[in-house]
Design goal:
Length: 289
C-alpha cells in the first residue's frame, strides 16, 4: 500500500499520456481516469484538466505544496504526478469518453495537468460520518484530527461536509484535492503582501469542515495538542527542503502562472506554523460556540 502514497519531499512522478479509462464526473474539474506510463510501469492515475484556469495558474503549485505538507503530518495523500498534454492534440475515438477526452486535449494542448495515483477501493467520505463515533475506526478518527489540523495550518477551506475531498480506505482516510489550499495567497494587495496575511475567516469556514463534528467533541484534544507541538517543531530548513522539490515549472512560467508563488507559500507556511497555537484556539472557540 505504501507505494501508492506520497512521502514528504519525494517530488512528482513525470508521466506520459496514455489510455483514457473513464470520466470520473465528480468535483469541479471532472477529472479523467487514465492508464499512464510512469517509472514503475503503467498504472491508473486521476488526471485533472484545466489546471491553468485555477487561481490564475497558482492552483497547481498550491495543490502540490499542500499535499506535500499533508504527508509531513502523516495525512495520507495519493502519489502525485505531472503530465503535459500533447501538442498537437491526439485523435480520440468517437465514443462518449473519446469526445470528452478530445475536448480536454484541445483545450489543454501543451498545458500541465496535476495527476494523482488512483486509490483503488477508496470511497468518498459521506456527510455525517463522524456523527456516531462508535462506527468509526480509531485510526480513521486520528486521520480526521490530523486532516483538520492540516487544514487549519494551510487555511484550506475546501473540505466541507457537502464536498469532503476526503476518501475512506479501509480504516484510513486519504486526503485529495488541495487546489484551493492557502486561501487568498494569490491575491496580492497594493503593499505587495497577499490577502492570505490579513484575512481571518478561519472560524466560520472551518466550522463546516467535514471533520469539525469530531474535533468539536473534544475527545481528541490531546492528539490535537500533540499535532500542534509537532507543527511548531517543523523547522524552516525542513520546509525549504520540501519547497525545493516543487517543480520550477509551476512557479511563474508562461503562459499565465504568477511568479514568486513558491516564496509566498513558504512565507504563509512559516507564519501560520508560528501562529498555529493561537489559530487553533480561535477555531476551537468557534466550534464550541
Ligand atoms: N487519487 C484518487 N483516487 C480515487 N479517486 C479520486 C482521486 N482523485 C480524485 N478522485 C475522485 O475524483 C473526484 C474529483 O477529484 P478532485 O481532486 O476533488 O477534483 P476537483 O478539483 O474537480 O474537485 C473526487 O471527489 C474523487 O471522487
Ligand atoms: Mg474536489
Amino acid at each position: 500500500m505504501n507505494t501508492l502514497f506520497h512521502t514528504p519531499g519525494r517530488g512528482l512522478v513525470r508521466l506520459e499520456i496514455g489510455t483514457p479509462l473513464r470520466s470520473l464526473d465528480q468535483g469541479r474539474s471532472k477529472p479523467i481516469l487514465f492508464e499512464l506510463d510512469g517509472p514503475d510501469g503503467p498504472a491508473p492515475w486521476v488526471v485533472k484538466p484545466r489546471c491553468l484556469d485555477r487561481r490564475g495558474g497558482a492552483g497547481l503549485l498550491c495543490e502540490v505544496a499542500a499535499a506535500d505538507v499533508a504527508s509531513l503530518l502523516a495525512v495520507l495523500v495519493p502519489e502525485m504526478g505531472l503530465l503535459s498534454f500533447p501538442s498537437p492534440p491526439l485523435d480520440t475515438e468517437v465514443t462518449e469518453l473519446g469526445v470528452r477526452v478530445g475536448e480536454v486535449y484541445r483545450r489543454d494542448e501543451g498545458h500541465l495537468a496535476f495527476c494523482s495515483r488512483y486509490t483503488q477501493g477508496a470511497v468518498p467520505v459521506v456527510e455525517g460520518l463522524f456523527d456516531d463515533l462508535r462506527s468509526v475506526p480509531a485510526a480513521m478518527q486520528a486521520d480526521a484530527v490530523r486532516t483538520f489540523a492540516l487544514d487549519v495550518w494551510l487555511r484550506h477551506y475546501d473540505r466541507a461536509a457537502s464536498n469532503p475531498n476526503l476518501l475512506a480506505l479501509e480504516d484510513r482516510l486519504v486526503a485529495i484535492d488541495h487546489g484551493l489550499a492557502f486561501y487568498g495567497v494569490e491575491q496580492i494587495r497594493d503593499d505587495g503582501l497577499s490577502r492570505f496575511e490579513d484575512v481571518d475567516t478561519d472560524g466560520p469556514k472551518l466550522a463546516s469542515h467535514v471533520c469539525a463534528p469530531l474535533v468539536a467533541r473534544g475527545r481528541h484534544d490531546a492528539l490535537l495538542d500533540e499535532i500542534a507541538v509537532q507543527i511548531g517543531a517543523i523547522g524552516d530548513a525542513r520546509l525549504d527542503q520540501l519547497a525545493s522539490t516543487w517543480p520550477d515549472t509551476l512557479d511563474g512560467s508562461p503562459p499565465a502562472r504568477p511568479s514568486g508563488m513558491r516564496s509566498s507559500l513558504l512565507r504563509a507556511l512559516r507564519a501560520r506554523r508560528d501562529a498555529f497555537p493561537s489559530l487553533l484556539r480561535s477555531v476551537r472557540a468557534c466550534l464550541s460556540s
